[in-house]
């Protein structure tokens, strides 16, 4: 009897999935304050920037001080807002609640829906890997109109520690069933981009403000985009 015939193996795609950070990458973290800027006053931009810095600081401190101190990203967001409101003399409780409500429904950057659609048309899977809690991510992607363009929402709550801990990035491989080298990781946060690069992803930085290179990303060959519109062209 002759040998049975088997069809030739299909070539493996170079990149099979694109993983995104959410806050600051797909979602504009400053859009919450922008909606209520007249009620905050001329310090609105500084207020928003400090809220973001404190939010991240609180996540890092909770990670560094151990599992007993972990709280989800929504708690960090609320605590950071409370600090910034006190520092800037914002005492209007209705405004504070409106800012929190706005943070749950942040705007996506203008090019994001078309970019995600283009990636899906190329056959790439799309996912978020974020510090955000599962409920935060569900609310935000639905409000931004991009929930149907994402295959998976991955939250650090699955491992109980925030970025840039390596366990967070391993979560993408575990849940998508792909090695890191077959996934692109896209972030507007250089520290997040560096951690993804170290974890073996094809890291790509979004640098909307033309900030200086950090962590040797450029020397390591990490591409940098001014926005996400050109991303599909980088995904083979």
Layout of helices and strands:
Blueprint: E1 17-20, H1 31-35, H2 37-40, H3 44-64, H4 73-88, H5 93-104, H6 112-121, E2 125-130, H7 134-143, E3 152-155, H8 166-176, E4 183-187, H9 190-198, E5 202-206, E6 224-225
Parallel strand pairs: 1-2, 1-4, 2-3, 4-5, 5-6
Helix pairs in contact: 3-4
What do these coordinates show?
There is one protein chain. The chain is an alpha/beta fold. The protein folds into two domains: 17-28 and 108-234, Rossmann fold (3-Layer(aba) Sandwich), CATH 3.40.50; 31-104, Orthogonal Bundle (DNA polymerase, domain 1), CATH 1.10.150. Helix content is 42%, strand content 11%. The protein is built from nine helices and six strands; from the N terminus they run E-H-H-H-H-H-H-E-H-E-H-E-H-E-E. The chain has helices at residues 31-35, 37-40, 44-64, 73-88, 93-104, 112-121, 134-143, 166-176, 190-198, and strands at 17-20, 125-130, 152-155, 183-187, 202-206, 224-225. It has a six-stranded parallel β-sheet with strand order 3-2-1-4-5-6, sandwiched between helices. Helix 9 (190-198) links the parallel strand 4 (183-187) and strand 5. Helix 3 crosses helix 4. It is globular. The relative contact order is 0.16.
Nutshell version of this structure?
This protein has 236 residues and is an alpha/beta fold. It contains 9 helices and 6 strands, in the order βααααααβαβαβαββ. Helix 3 packs across helix 4.
Descriptive key words:
236 residues; alpha/beta; Rossmann fold; DNA polymerase, domain 1; 9 helices; 42% helix; globular
């Amino acid at each position: 009897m002759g040998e049975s015939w088997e069809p030739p193996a299909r070539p493996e795609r170079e990149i099979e999935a694109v993983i995104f950070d959410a806050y600051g990458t797909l979602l504009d973290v400053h859009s919450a304050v922008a909606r209520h800027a007249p009620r905050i006053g001329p310090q609105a931009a500084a207020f928003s920037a400090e809220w973001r810095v404190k939010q991240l600081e609180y996540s890092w401190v909770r990670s560094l001080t151990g599992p007993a101190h972990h709280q989800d990203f929504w708690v960090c967001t609320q605590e950071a807002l409370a600090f910034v409101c006190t520092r800037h003399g914002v005492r209007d409780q209705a405004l504070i609640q409106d800012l929190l409500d706005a943070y749950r429904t942040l705007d996506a950057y203008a090019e994001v829906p078309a970019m995600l659609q283009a990636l899906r048309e190329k056959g790439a899977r799309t996912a978020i890997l974020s510090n955000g809690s599962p409920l935060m991510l569900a609310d935000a992607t639905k409000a931004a109109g991009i929930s149907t363009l994402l295959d998976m929402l991955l939250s650090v709550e699955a491992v109980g520690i925030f970025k840039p801990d390596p366990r967070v990035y391993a979560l993408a491989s575990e849940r998508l069933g792909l090695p890191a080298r077959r996934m692109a990781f896209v972030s507007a946060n250089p520290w997040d981009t560096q951690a993804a690069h170290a974890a073996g992803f094809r890291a790509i930085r979004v640098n909307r403000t033309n900030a200086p290179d950090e962590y040797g990303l450029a020397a390591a060959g990490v591409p940098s985009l001014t926005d996400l519109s050109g991303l599909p062209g980088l995904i083979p």
